[in-house]
Amino acid sequence: MAEGARELVRYENVDGVGVITIDNPPVNALSPGVPEGIVAAVERGNADPAIRAMVMIGAGRTFIAGADIRQFGTNRPPPIEGRRPHQILDRSEKPVVAAIHGYALGGGFELALASNYRVALASAKVGLPEVLIGILPGSGGTQRLPRLVGPKAAMEIIVSGRHVSAEEAHRLGIIDELVPEGADLRAAAIAFARRIADHRPLPRLRERDDKLAEAKADPGMFEAMRRSIARRARGQKAPYHCIQSVENACALPFDEGVRRERELFDELENSDEARALRYAFFAEREVARLPDIPRDIPLRPIKNAAIVGAGTMGGGIAMSFAEFGFPVRLLEVSQEALDRGLARIRANYETRVRRGSLSEAEMNRRLALIQPVTSYADIKDCDVVIEAVFERIPVKEEVFKKLDEVMKPGALLYTNTSGIDIDIMANATRRPQDVAGTHFFAPANVMKLFEVVKGTKSAPDTLATAMDLGRKIGKISAMAGNGDGFVANRSRTPFGTEMNIMIEEGALPEQIDKIMVDFGYPIGPFATADLSGLDIGYDSRQRRAAQDPNYRKMPIADMVVEMGRLGQKTGAGWFKYEPGDRTPHPDPELARLIKQKALELGIPQREFSDDEILRRLLFASVNEACRILDEGKAYRSSDIDVMWLNGFNFPRYRGGLMYWADTIGGLAEVYRQIQAWHQQYGARWAPSPYLRRLAETGTSFRDAKPSRPM
Ligand code: T1G
Question: Which helix (H) or strand (E) holds 100?
Answer without folding.
Answer: strand 96-100
